[in-house]
## 1
Amino acid sequence: MNVPDCIFCKIALREIPSEIAYEDDEIIAFKDNQPLAPVHLLIIPKNHLINLNDVTLEYENLIGHLLGVVRRLASEFGVAESGYRVVTNTGTDGGQVVGHLHFHLLGGQALEAKIG
Ligand code: AMP
Ligand code: ZN
């Protein structure tokens, strides 16, 4: 299979090491290596979608599944009750650096109220 030259695809294929928190056939979650909060996970589809602009109707089940994984990880990492933030940066103005759809799960401290 022709795999894009993508750091997150390589993490999903375990060609690049990461601290994996969850994995199934469609989704992988791992610790951000430059954490911005005590809990900072990245949850991604294994399929190389670039960002939310690629999430057409055919992927709605996948995204529903992914958000279920986010909920489960929030509980496992002990932030479900204290609260957390889920962010997906999209495109240049959205601050997206890695061009593979990913959801940040941030928690473990009071996050700044400000968005944007
Ligand atoms: P974004 O700005 O939304 O594209 O965020 C990309 C995130 O990926 C950043 O928080 C980086 O710290 C994180 N990141 C980049 N490379 C790696 C890696 N090899 N392992 C874990 N996290 C990474
Ligand atoms: Zn990719």
## 2
Amino acid sequence: MCGIVGLVGQKNNVVEAVVYGLEGLEYRGYDSAGIACTDSGDTKIICAKACGELSALKAQLHEQPISGLAAIGHTRWATHGRVTLENVHPHFDCSGTIALVHNGIIENYHELGTMLKAEGHIFKSDTDSEVVAHLLESILDRGLSPKKALHELVSRLDGAYALVIMLGGRSDELLFVRKRSPLCLGLGKNKSAVVSDLVAFDADIEKYAIIPDQTYGFLRMGEVEAYSFDGFSAEITYTPHIHNASSRDRGGHAHYMLKEIYEQKGIVHRIVTALNDLGDEWIKGLGYTSASQASESLKKLTHVDLIACGTSYYAASLGAFFLRDIAGIDTSVTRASEFAYNPILMKNRLYGVVSQSGETADTLEVLRALKRQEQSVFGIVNVEKSSMAREADGFFAMHAGPEISVASTKSFTAQVVVFYWLALKIAHSKGLITLQQLQASEAELLWCGNKIEETLENNKSSIEHDAAWFAQYKTCLFLGRQESFILAAEAALKLKELAYIFVEAFPSGELKHGPLALVDQNMPVVVFSSADPLVYQKIVSNAQEVKARGGRLVVFGFQDQTALLNLAEKSYCVSGFSSYTQCDSLLGPLCMVAAMHYLVYSIAKVLERPIDKPRNLAKSVTVE
Ligand code: F6R
């Protein structure tokens, strides 16, 4: 979603550095971009804006370069107002001497806009953000200092917002405000920066700090002045910054998505090693402070409530199977956007938020609401400096590394692995399994980790061959049962998101209760099999029902499942893992996941979709 980069430099020109920062933010999804800069002693603010890719803005800057000692830039993902040049940030006041970029939503923008229009302010855009520029203008016009003006500004804005503001001619400082939307400060060689995501920093930034919530202040060369919303000095705590330029390249792959599909190979070993390295401290991930507290609480724990969105919701749904079957804990999973309306808060419950970014607004708001009600909340999060990682009582890092492609691939796999490991640890600490059993199960998890890429490689050429066949269809049905239904649902989300093909996922037992009416020779039906012998038998019956109606049957199955594989027109098989293998059948989806991702990738490629940045979507959904 929207991204912010603000820089104060020593060299004229900081514009290139802002562009570099915006490139780092591109992965979050955006539809337009803009930059403004100013020089010392010159009250003029110069601006360049373009709709579409950042390359359009770069081409414009190449034709008509702009320069200054301070600059602010923004990538916009439209919420209030269409994708037009007028709506691109930075936004200005009437005099053109205040420019600002904004992430989040100003909830009372309509009331403020009406009042400011009545005062004579002229608006140029349809955005909620522009209101802030005019409001600040009207406050400063009363002769208040910038510090007092910011203090009044935050008292009049409702909603969630990260703001970076430039005053014409004040090239030595930028103003910043943070309420609920992420914003970070960076200090370094020849420049100071304020950005919405750490990836926007360059190698010159030596240390950084997450701005505390409800803080405003001033960024200058090598220094920061910060105040909490109540006007007292705010403490800013810095951490050394290590720039990771390699996370920005595609590692020789055509797309980030492909790079990330292949990164799943080593992920299982890496996560299990890192989690085991926690030793006895693992209980802190659940928010417990001591082993005795953990052991008491885990014995009494009757229910876990998992909360997440999108792909993380499906990973949590697999996690619920693991926690129920392995750790004996009744577990429910709720989409964060629905949870807010129906929370039944009870004793001896543990809440878990699951998120790649750790910034998804719906999930974050549930976490905050639960914390306000003094509930215990743990997280499973990839971005370790994210708001969720900081605000939960404890969290488990997913160790997936930066995920750039909008569609989550390796982070899904990482979440599933963390859940499986966690279920084993809880089961062991409750005395449900012995240490030997725990180690044997961990070995099965690692064995399945090796299957991820083996299954992809074994089926790669068939998948590439079949992609064009899939691409001709406008609709599809995906089926599975139990844990394999979760994979079917996640695959359906991926195909919708990346190929824009309408797919419905159903538990295959539901076929006869409605969806079977859709099945004919024009309907591809993809069945995700289970390695559980009983579940498998039922899946075979459902596949026969599809076949009998002329449906175009495609199967993701396991070796030896010949009855099912023989029914299929096209099939992709996990070798060495049959219904009779001594491996937990709950791990079946893990073996299939990269092959499933590669099928979706290949179909999207045939259809020439913008794979890493699907239309209308953003990587980190920071508005509710
Ligand atoms: C789909 C996808 C999204 C995210 C969802 C939650 O491929 O990536 O559905 O899973 O927006 O994001 P996080 O995990 O960052 O909370």
